[in-house]
Design a protein that fits this description.
332 residues, alpha/beta, 8-stranded parallel β-barrel, 11 helices, 10 strands
């Protein structure tokens, strides 16, 4: 029988803190994902994500200003095209002059000069078929054409003012293509690439697809997103992106994949690691608290501490406005 005693380490709050990992959460450990629409004054509530809205550029300024005052450090932009007729097989709306991200970037840089701005780079919200790349005639992915188009979009976001481009498509070798295009435009040293390196084919994305209007018109994304039971492919995906020049890595979703976050951070400790608390996770926690099944602050703090303990340097979460209110410029 073991005679090891744990209770003597737990009876006093200070003793308990001595045994905890460094899971402090400060504003710079949070990134706020935002949906941008074409109509500049719009605020569009998202039914499947209570408390989250799509914003036009003007309403976004009003929304962000008090959050910046509370310490908001970084945002992640997703563009949405409401008019289905503007979507095509080449995703031309992804970086057109009327794209809300392209139009918002110069304004955001002017309004909030210290805010770090990342842009999601994918073709699905702008494609007629809703897939993340360009397709062959038989409906399969044309990887070579896809990464060329994705790299074009990334460079145009960089030119418009993005500090970070974040490809979420999971195409093979898109990091290499983006880096090549950035070098050609002499932007490589001015723009970081945050790779959605380890993105699983997850059931937790449903509310996001409603929000971004990016549901596939046919089939699914299992041929290019990772199977949820795989550790080996997750390691290979991160290694591939590091070798191609990714500046930062991401694991997505968060809670079901914290073992993968730890694996990725242990493998690449020198690169910042992002964990995305995705829409399904947000809705699950929000609705549980709304029903009275848990206390929102207590549960959310525990979940985020777990993500930090697993190795995340920054957590992407829709709860950022609430978290900043709780933090008031300090730590959570």
């Amino acid at each position: 029988m073991s005679l090891t005693k744990l209770h003597p380490s737990l009876f006093h709050p200070t003793l308990r803190k001595m045994h905890e990992a460094d899971v402090q959460i400060l504003p710079h450990n949070l990134m706020y994902p935002i949906f941008l629409v074409e109509k500049d004054d719009d605020v569009q509530p998202i039914p499947s994500m209570p408390g989250v809205c799509r914003y036009g550029i003007n309403s976004l300024k009003e929304h962000l200003a008090p959050l910046v005052d509370l310490g908001l450090s970084s945002i992640l932009l997703f563009g949405i095209i409401d008019d289905a007729s503007m979507k095509d097989d080449q995703a031309t709306s992804a970086d057109s002059f009327y794209n809300p991200v392209i139009r918002a970037l110069p304004q955001l840089r002017k309004w909030f000069p210290n805010l770090l701005i990342a842009c999601d780079v994918c073709l699905c919200p702008y494609s007629r078929h809703g897939h993340c790349g360009i397709l062959h005639a038989d409906g399969t992915i044309d990887n070579d054409k896809s990464i060329e188009r994705i790299a074009q979009v990334a460079v145009n976001y960089a030119k418009a003012g993005a500090h970070i481009v974040a490809p979420s498509d999971m195409m093979d070798n898109r990091i290499f293509a983006i880096k090549k295009f950035l070098r050609h435009e002499q932007l490589e040293g001015k723009v970081n690439v945050l790779s959605y390196s380890v993105k699983f084919a997850s059931s937790f994305y449903g509310p996001f697809r409603d929000a971004a209007k990016s549901k596939p018109a046919f089939g699914d994304r299992k041929c290019y997103q990772l199977p949820y039971g795989s550790r080996g492919l997750a390691k290979r995906a991160a290694k591939r992106d590091v070798e191609e020049g990714a500046d930062m890595l991401m694991v997505k979703p968060g809670m079901p994949y914290l073992d993968i976050a730890r694996q990725t951070k242990d493998e690449f400790p020198h690169l910042p690691l992002f964990v995305y608390q995705v829409s399904g996770e947000y809705a699950m926690i929000y609705n549980a608290a709304k029903m009275g099944s848990c206390d929102l602050r207590t549960m959310l703090t525990e979940v985020l501490a777990g993500m930090r303990r697993a190795g995340s340097d920054c957590i992407i979460t829709y709860f950022v406005p609430q978290l900043l209110q709780w933090m008031k410029g300090g730590a959570l």
